[in-house]
Design brief:
This protein has 392 residues and is mainly β. It has no helices and 30 strands. It has strands spanning 15-22, 25-27, 30-31, 35-40, 45-54, 60-66, 72-77, 83-87, 90-99, 105-114, 139-147, 150-153, 158-163, 176-185, 195-202, 209-212, 220-226, 232-237, 249-254, 257-260, 271-275, 281-286, 293-299, 302-307, 314-320, 326-331, 337-343, 346-349, 361-364, 380-387. The strands form eight sheets. A four-stranded antiparallel sheet has the order 4-1-30-29, with no helix packed on it.
Amino acid sequence: MKSRMAATVYFCVGWIAALAISFRLAAQTQQRPAQYVVIALSTLGGTDAAAQQVNSSGLISGDSNLTGDTTEHAVLWRPDGTITDLGTLGGPSSGGSQVNENGLILGASETASIDPLGGNWGMLFNCNLSGAPCEGYQHIVLAVTWQKGVMTTLPTLGGNNAQVPPNTGLNNKGEAVGFAENSTQDPSCAAPQVLDYEAVIWGPSRREIRELPPLSGDSIGAAFGIDDVGQVVGATGPCGFPSFSIARHAVLWQNGVVTNLPTLGGLMSNAALSINNRGQIVGTSDLPGDTATHAVIWNGGKVMDLGTLPGDYFSFASGINDKGQVIAQSCDINFNCRAALWQNGVMTDLNALTPPGSLYLVVAQHINNRGDYRDRFRSEHWWHTSISCDSV
């Protein structure tokens, strides 16, 4: 889904491409010029789509607008370029956010029912370039999985709605994370939110759900990433509609126990978004005074500021692979943003790796471990990137 949860900034998107950039290294100390392949992906008839994640078999999960750009559906792109509409739970829109190595797809869908408490979790589906929501945003939203053409609804904690993170909430054991409403009506919630919601793990058994506790003093939580051993990262804070504005504490859940992660000194926008199988975590943290947000990495219990691209003011890290390469976004003071890669202490503008004047890469969603495979795709890393509409 073209989720608003990842930031409070919305991007002008013309179409989506999967960008494969090969860093073929002769040795660790000698890097050859980068090579690349750009593949434009088809849509379901609309002018806006988002590729969220790719597995090592080349299956790509995401969503695409339908003709008219008022609704979007979860889709699966196959290596041959074909696109499959994964459908909905009866509501207007759905979104597919992740696909694991077994072909299991995680996402969310609107149902046919309007939320009786006036919630609008469908606002997290974004259908046009202005950032306006899709048709049916007042409908109840539930987390779902798709596999072999079968859609399975995932449970809530007794409330109406549930949602999943944009790109790193599914591991290869079939465990998925996100956040789900419970039945507690909390008067401290920011309107239109009425119920508290908590971080959860679904699976690996069918319809299994486990609640993850927030930090003491916080009322809600959201899980954004999980690794293959079941470590979960996310954020907790006060009750409000899901966004980084309520992410007071970046956290790690391990064996059901929640741990507060250190920050850069700010009190807001502290969120752990992705964890690799080495236990390295990336996300965001505000600087002291909460005037800027920077991408960060947590390693061994310590936090490190990943900085920004030259001349920029904000940055956000959304994914990390098992090699420690981080996908990020860097923005100037006016939120003109660029997709970026951080590795070996250096942040690089991904636009420097494309032919001049061809594409402008705004946001990178995911990086996988293709480089671990010793075949013709050796040392190849994939990014899914939104392309700004002024370059179309």
